[in-house]
Amino acid sequence: MDKFTELTAIAAPMPTENIDTDQIIPARFLKTIQRTGLGKNAFAAQRYDADGNEKPDFVLNQEPYRHAEILITYDNLGCGSSREHAPWALLDFGIRCVIAPSFADIFFNNCFKNGILPIRLPREICDELMDDARQGANSRLTVDLERQVIVRPNGESIPFDVDPFRRHMLLEGLDDIGQTMAHDAEITSFEHRPSRAWVPSITIGTVK
Amino acid sequence: MPVTNSPRTLFDKIWDDHVVERLEDGTCILYIDRHLVHEVTSPQAFEGLRMSGRRVRRPDATVAVADHNVPTSDRSKPIEEPQSRLQIETLEKNVAEFGVPYFPLRSASQGIVHVVGPEQGISLPGMTIVCGDSHTSTHGALGSLAFGIGTSEVEHVLATQTILQKPAKNMRVSVEGKVGPGVTAKDIMLAIIGRIGTAGGTGHVIEFAGSAIRDLDMAGRMTLCNMSIEAGARAGLVAPDETTFAYVKGRPFAPKGEAFEQACDYWRSLASDDGAYFDTEVTLAAEEIIPSVTWGTSPQDVLPIDGSVPSPSDEPDPARAAQIQRALDYMGLEAGQKIAGTPVDVVFIGSCTNSRLEDLRAAADVVRGHHVAEGVRAMIVPGSGLVKHAAEAEGLDKIFLDAGFEWREAGCSMCLGMNPDRLTPGQRCASTSNRNFEGRQGPDGRTHLCSPAMAAAAAVTGRLCDVRELVKETV
To answer: What are the Aconitase/3-isopropylmalate dehydratase large subunit alpha/beta/alpha domain coordinates in residue numbering (chain B) (predicted)?
Structure first.
């Protein structure tokens, strides 16, 4: 996973609530066995017409937003399906940071696992940042994870919260699995607790 | 492990019993008892293991089945779509390489992972259960803590049999009283989502309680917990009780004999203590719930069947008003119109929400003596091969086939249209599935979520209608 430290980038405003993961990447594109290559189909239904031509009114088809690395939306971003293809599609499109008043839990978690920083900010502030974003290519936002601030084009700093453990993982670009495997002894000891004796094992030959 | 004497919820107890270690910042290494794997969200996880030279820590706690991509037509033929075929072949290769138990596509036990788990007794009360699918919440009906995870977490669980998580908040949704005739678990859940919204449960695990919930059979409880994610919750739970134990007893992978009795004692101890603290409490009166459908493109866009579609002009927030207008345009509906009477093109009875034997019986009760309306395509997709066989043993297939329904093989099918079962643009569908998002059942398809009985009524009348009136006519 790539580290996330500081990002200065174009932000795309999407003033919509409940953007679900089916919108971010429709199910028909989930047949891949790779993590990459989904960016061209991110937001496919909004981005392309039935003939595959770009719809000019969709924000990510417009300049400068086709180069956006930050996405700003309204409440409950990423609701619905747990598909990690949603953050993969955003990442493959070029998005490294998503800002919204609230997120669906699984999507929020999936973002961190892929080096995308999700930031919760009140709706009024999201509105201000969207106004900044609408000023175009010269109006970039800086997201500084080390200092936990977003710097607006006018120089104002907006602080944000982030879970310390997840911040550390992003800043260092660390893999969770390696970290957890360091606790192997504790996991093994848990597995041998007498109170767990009732949990049946599934032997391979019995599943048919 | 911080076991205190203060009263705890069902969620607290299952959580506490699975904490391997609590890290400095409160993140817990949580042990996972069952990991269910399907073909869509696992290939990249197995590939990750392979790249790092890791193995599956507990193949004997892991079970795989293909469901999302599988055709629901004749299984003796090869899968036509090459990408779907590749995904299923990849799963078969991975389970063989890593020694994971697998229900093959042509096995009678194959089916939707959230139908198969409980049906086989693989999912049991008191367990932690994960799967790379948001509807893993279904298994919470057994009184297990079950939630959907992303593919990175699938890899994490395969490698470590644990997950990193902080505890959720507790929410209790109580439904008290008795539901009226024609009102099902689906209507109860749609009413709950309509009340709290699709983000109402964010950060919470919902425990469903109250007399109307206790009265539900296991299939109904699964419908309810299945759609917890549509209320934004991490998981849904129903406390295990005698209904649960009677369901679990004798299932192939459930404990047997004395081990079963001991397990029941443990499961009984999991119910929320009197005075346990819930961060959020919601109460609904069962008598006030009537058969419901969705009108829009979010599961919270719920209407009782006698209701009217909302108008953007009644919404003070301009962003929300615009969203209502967009949903109306997408759905091809007029502001203020009655939802009943809306003509449908397709009826889909299936999905992990409503494809169990009880669901098929409820639909058959409505269909018996009727025929599918002209111009309507109506399909039944049982949740598993075993559900299909059981339904056939009762003659339900004959009722559906005589009425003009398609009787298909098990899979996720038109709930999300990864296989060939899809709506064409503009088609309107009464569907027993769980999501009415734009494009969910096929690009530009229009979905109205409802119960199996309501979907059956729509099939025979060709319109969204009140199933109670149809059944009254027949009687």
So the answer is: 12-462
Cβ atoms within 10 Å of A200's Cβ, excluding its own? 18
Q: Which domain holds residue A194?
A: 6-206
Q: Does B187 touch chain A (CB under 8 A)?
A: no
Using one digit for the tens of pLDDT, what is the confidence trace for B197-238? 999 999 999 999 999 999 999 999 999 999 999 999 999 999
Rounded Cα distance, B116 and A203, in Å: 16
Query: Which chain B residues are within 8 Å of A186, Cβ to Cβ?
Result: 20-21, 29
Contact A48, B466 (CB under 8 A): no
Query: The tokens of B251 are what?
Result: 């299932």
B10-166 — its CATH code?
A: 3.30.499.10
Nearest CA in chain B to A48: B443
With a CB-CB cutoff of 8 Å, which residues 57-96 of chain A face chain B? Answer: 74-76, 79-84, 87
CATH level 3 topology of B293-474: Aconitase; domain 3 (3.30.499)
Distant-in-sequence, close-in-space partners of B67: CB < 8 Å, separation ≥ 6: B38, B39, B110, B111, B112, B113, B410, B411, B412
Residue-wise pLDDT tens digits, B101-132: 999 999 999 999 999 999 999 999 999 999 99
**Residue written as token pair 């395969």:** B158
User: In chain B, positions 194-223, which contact chain A (CB-CB < 8 Å)?
Assistant: 198-199, 202-203
Q: Which two tokens stand for residue B133?
A: 């699918």
pTM of the full predicted structure? 0.97
- Residue A109's domain is classified under what CATH number? 3.20.19.10
Q: Kindly report the nearest CA distance between residue A64 and chain B, in angstroms.
A: 24
Residue ranges of chain B that CATH labels 3.30.499.10: 10-166, 293-474
Q: Is A123 on the interface with B (CB under 8 A)?
A: no
Query: Residue B262: which region, alpha, beta or left (left: phi > 0; alpha: psi -120 to 50)?
Result: alpha
